[in-house]
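Note to self: keep these together.
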Amino acid sequence: MIRALWDDSPPRTAPNTLRSHLTRLRAQLSSAGFGGLVATDGAGFALPENIDSDARLFESTARSARNILTSGNPAAAVNAIAGGLEMWRGDPLSDVRPSEWARAEFARLTEIRTGMLETKFQAKILLGDHEAIVSELEQFVADSPFQERFWGLLVTTLACAGRRAEALSAYQRARTILTEELGIEPGYELQRLQTAILNGESVGPRELLPTIHPQEAPPTAGPARPLGNIVPVPPTNFIGRDSEVSTLVGLLGASHLVTLTGVGGVGKSRLAIESTRQVADSFPGGIWYLDLSLLDQPDLLIHQVLEIFDIRDRTAPTLLEQLISRLVGADALLLLDNCERMVDACADLVDTLLRSLPHLRILVTSRQALTLQGERILAVPPLACPPATEHNPAVELFWDRAAATVGELASPELRDPELAVQICRRLEGIPLAIELAAVQLRVLSLDDLLRRLTDRFQALASGHRSAPKRHHTLRATIDWSFDLCSPEEQTLWARLSIFRGTFDLSAAETVCRDETLGGADFTALMANLVDKSIFARETHPIGVRFRMLESVSDYGRQHLRKSGQDIRFLNRHRDYYLQVVETTQRSWFGPGQLDRLNRIRTELANLRAAFDHCITSPGQTEAAQRLAAGLHLLWAGCDYTAEGQHWLNVALAASDEPSPARATALWVSARIDFLQGDQIQARDKLDEAWQLATNLDDQLTLTHILHIRGSGDLIGNEVTTAKATLVQAFTRYREYGGDPSLSALCGIQLAMACVMTDDPHTAIEHLRHALQLCAAVEDEWIHSYGLYVLSWATYTLGNLEQALALVLETLIFKHRFRDMVGLAAGFEQLARTLVDLGQSRSAARALGAAHQCWDAMGRGWFGGSREWRAVYDYAEAKCRDDLPEPVFQKEFDRGYASPLADLVPFILVR
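Structure:
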């Protein structure tokens, strides 16, 4: 009570002053008819258990309304909330003396009211009362512009009301506020809403509302109750983790068993300890803490638990009965820390306790979940490490610990933010690794520390003496995890370490499974490693995938090298991903293109690793050339041209041995050169490829070379030559077959040549055939190029409205595929069409967007193509004629400054 009144600085007379206050309070309550409300209770005071206060009633009303909504009765939820909101008469506790307790309680009650409003809006959306709450939501976000979830509700409401353009505009306003004022991008839910609207998906309230789940408001953070044992008080500051603490507090209010999992050193114990302080007042039966890291014998677990509850008589028939009888009716929280060495024993104990004690809550920290029914698992991630200009919890932790090691680093002037970000990213945001790194600053500079982190196990080979032995070094932490694994799990861990980024179950089994794993259930082995936090399970748009932290992966690779099996499994990894690439290439022209492209994008880290292995290993040049050339659709059309050309040049330079793989790599590389404007180098490569293919009598490769030569002429100001060459290539595709996507693209490029030679009618005939072929197989990528050329042909014939509709459709497709070349050309065609329709402001913005796309690729207008440049020049000149210079520049800058992800909504709400 003293702490609640005076925080951490009570006067010496505090006990006497407190007694005086209490005497006067009890007298005033008695005269008002509430005698006995504050009763003496041994050494302290007590309130009746059944006392009701307006704050408690307000809280229970909010919780009840939320539960009613979750149960599927939005109308009843609205009625319940109305009563709760009537209780709010202004800022709570405004007449209370300022203190830590009062500030915390004010924040808690305010957050409950905000939650009530959120529940009200969600309920009204579900009731279809969209128009009625738009103005309320607009007022709320105007008053509280940083409440992102209410922006989400506004966007949802507008979308459900059929006002999609306004919904996208609201998203843009939210994004501008968040990025300019807070320096952060919108969260996943808000971005998901935007994507759904852009993709034309059916927007219904239940699909787009944030997930509704019952959750009690976090209880006030106050002085710890005397009941319970001593929860450790860490000697250092607790930094970051606001979101995780909030989530955990909510879970403890709603679930009887919560388990924190995560890799060693990620901060599970610290998060658990800090969160228990915030919920202390919610557990009148006390908070009881037990550290199991030093306990090796599962049979002693029950004895350790009895000891913390001070149960001395251990001779009863069942020790569990004593423990259960001690806890009957107690609203207590039991914190079992570091359970991974005896997961089975802990699971048995926890299961028995929870079945017998309905009031008990248990919080567990473990590298492996208990896998009990009703267990809520919270995976603790590493600390976030954004750029130095943003709030960075990992760097904040690093500087805090560094200042404790080297006092002068407490001064911000002596800190290097960029170096600190690099160090923390190298350490993957793992708090233990960051703390161990800070200790090294006793003898190392920041630059030296960063250089030495190439071998993080050696660099972090010492720590604080007071830390547990398993936390003395990074290697000791991971050794602890390795020892928890069975021999089969250890073997699989080592083999999985060859993957980069993320990987799926199919890849893991294909690459890593062999006879040495015996009859082990591979899926069960994977599940065990996830349970033991060796790698994390992630849900991606393409399915479930797994990720290892780099430090865990490095550890596994060291074991794989020691076993002498590393080359064998690197080769298996290479073969698997080469097959993925070539299968994707063969099946590209057809339905599901975007899914296949997303798969390739998701696998880029593994593809890069496979390519590096080919280049650095003897005798694997042909595989490198096949891998680089097999991704030509990614390189040419999806914002990876520079990386693709790097791969191709490296693979071609590695060996000039004549082969079909080299001939293919040459024409693919030439295609990229043409897109980058290097006509001379592209033609040299095509000449070599032609000679190779002729010697090999490879007619299909000769057809590809003709096609690429014709497309190069098309953007190299040789349109008449291009037309003749493309006709020849198109004829050969019909004769020799080959990749149908390239055949269709050839027909579209031939149509483009017809448009550029003032023959739009013939172009439309070619396009009709190509677009029918694309539609028959549900192709989207080649189809989008056909739409672009058709827009140009239609524009040439003077049908501006149809040309506008076609180019807008083109841009939607190009945005989905992140086709930067297509986006740039599409925005130029859009600008030309808009300016002729009298929409010069929008045209100026489209020009800015096109310019941004070209600049992002580091080149412009296909290296100087007159035909494409003429589109831009015409639109720019006419815009400048129509608009005053300041207006043109303002609109152009708006288009240039719009994030690439927002270019399509920019068009839709123009």
